[in-house]
Amino acid sequence: MPASSVRSVPAVPAASIPPIPENAPRASARVPLRFEDVTQDGRLVLEALPTALGPTLWRGLLDRDPGLPACFVHGGFPIISRLVLEGTAGPFSANGRVEAEGSYRLARADDGRFMLDTWADLYAPLGRTHGAASPDAPRTLAGRVLGEHVFTRPFGPPGQRRVTALDFEGAPVVTETRAAAPSFESIASVPDAATPLDDCARADSTPIVFGLVHTDGNMHVNSLAYLRVFEEAALRRFVELGRGALLLARRMDIAYRKPCFAGQTMRVMQQAFESEGAIGVASVLVDASAPPDARPHVCARMTFSR
């Protein structure tokens, strides 16, 4: 494409969600809540937030984009590579109406990868699950989601799965560029300004055994299953450190390098830290039979609040 037609977009730094691009397409939709998506103090759990991408993006915008079906026909699919999640204080009711605004952009990263970036901002009225709902309760931000997807050919032969060009008939026109995603190592590291509470990454005492309950139709462990795995491991470490378990993850940056499958036994390696009064962990998920320094399947960094 001509250089003059390429517009550079801002980088997406670790653990930060930029605003939805001004000129990007947008769609709004209601987001269904499960009772267990709202904690006892009225906050939304982080794993509930990405569900907003379904009604706003995949069924609200992307199913009308003719370029994506053309990619599918040629074996290219946008595969989730990273999620950044932020939850707010609330409180919210499990019976409240949650609505989200979603958007997306297509861009080519500095490393040559074609990316689908997706956003969703969730809003809900303040309230409590039990008790009469106030008709004039203010509507406020409940959480934010950024999803990064890499176009790849998951069913292609080894060595030919990376999508390096969108040059087939009907392909989406990509006119934006962006910085490459943060490295796995940076996401799985203690922030520079933080105070480590562990001198190194420590193995969680509880192995993670994946079964069919963790999987989806893509034949591997679902990307959202890892969120609970990492948060529960962090709580176990906080108890060991004498910080207790009455904490809830409010920010999470998670990157997916390699899928896990039903039948695998994994372990979490994590290092706790404290930053600006918040406690957190930098974590990786590795095969339980591999050495501690093995390349991780998934990396994550979380910060918690009481």
Element order: H for helix, E for strand = EEHHEEEEEHEEEHEEEE
Shape by Cα distribution: globular
Low-confidence stretches: 1-15
Largest sheet, in brief, is: 14 strands, mixed
Please state the structural category: mainly beta
Proportion of residues in helical segments: 10-25%
Oligomer: single chain
Query: Helical region count?
Result: 4
Amino- and carboxy-terminal Cα gap: 50 Å
Supply Rg. Answer: 20 Å
- Average pLDDT for all residues: 90
Description:
The chain is mostly beta strands. The chain is built from four helices and 14 strands. It has helices at 53-58, 67-73, 184-187, 225-240; strands at residues 7-8, 26-31, 77-87, 98-109, 114-125, 139-152, 176-178, 195-196, 202-203, 208-209, 248-256, 265-275, 278-287, 298-305. Strands 1, 2, 3, 4, 5, 6, 7, 8, 9, 10, 11, 12, 13 and 14 form a 14-stranded mixed sheet that branches. β4 and β5 form a beta hairpin. Residues 1-15 have low confidence and may be disordered.
Key descriptive features of the protein:
306 residues, mainly beta, 4 helices, 11% helix
In short:
Helix content is 11%, strand content 34%.
Q: What is the secondary structure topology, with strand pairs?
A:
Elements: E1 7-8, E2 26-31, H1 53-58, H2 67-73, E3 77-87, E4 98-109, E5 114-125, E6 139-152, E7 176-178, H3 184-187, E8 195-196, E9 202-203, E10 208-209, H4 225-240, E11 248-256, E12 265-275, E13 278-287, E14 298-305
